[in-house]
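Progress note, sequence design subtask.
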């Protein structure tokens, strides 16, 4: 199956409005309408089929126009995504299994928003709201904020981003960091 980038996918990639892992960003670049999913998986960047399926589900990638075979396998995958990921992970090198097992872990805190004292948004939703703000703030710092931007991009959970918030606030100032604070704590 050959996948191509959608317009929405190119915009998301450019403005980082949807947090993608570094592996997903690398794989996204490789989907040029010429490489198949199997070729991208074999490229050795450690991405799993489940992560590619997630990008398709988000509308960032779509089957190429001449790739009719893509429509038939894609439909059964969401219904058996857990089984597909479990059987696909052991086939590649063992290095790709820990990131997959780490992927479901951020989804586990989402059902436990009762631990969050504030309003009705889950921790996962707060992370999704705050991540693009944090990357925008640190990206605007240029070379001075390069390392901080890398730290933000390395976060995988609400707690990680909350831990970096004081550093971001110190770098950009309290006024600019107010939007981040609101997204994290509102």
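Output:
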């Amino acid at each position: 199956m050959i996948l191509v980038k959608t317009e929405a996918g190119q915009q998301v990639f450019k403005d980082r409005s949807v947090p993608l892992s570094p592996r997903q960003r690398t794989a996204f670049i490789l989907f040029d309408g010429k490489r198949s999913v199997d070729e991208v998986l074999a490229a050795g960047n450690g991405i799993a089929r489940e992560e590619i399926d997630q990008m398709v589900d988000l509308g960032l990638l779509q089957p190429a126009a001449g790739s009719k075979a893509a429509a038939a396998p894609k439909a059964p995958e969401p219904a058996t995504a857990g089984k597909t990921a479990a059987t696909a992970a052991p086939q590649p090198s063992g290095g790709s299994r820990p990131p997959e097992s780490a992927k479901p872990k951020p989804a586990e805190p989402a059902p436990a928003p009762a631990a969050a004292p504030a309003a009705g948004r889950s921790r996962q939703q707060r992370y999704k709201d705050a991540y693009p703000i944090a990357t925008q703030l640190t990206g605007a710092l240029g070379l001075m904020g390069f390392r901080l931007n890398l730290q933000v991009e390395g976060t995988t959970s609400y707690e990680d981003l909350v831990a970096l918030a004081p550093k971001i606030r110190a770098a950009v100032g309290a006024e600019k960091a107010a939007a981040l604070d609101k997204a994290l704590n509102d």
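The first helix runs from residue 7 to 15. Work on this subtask will continue into the next period as scheduled.
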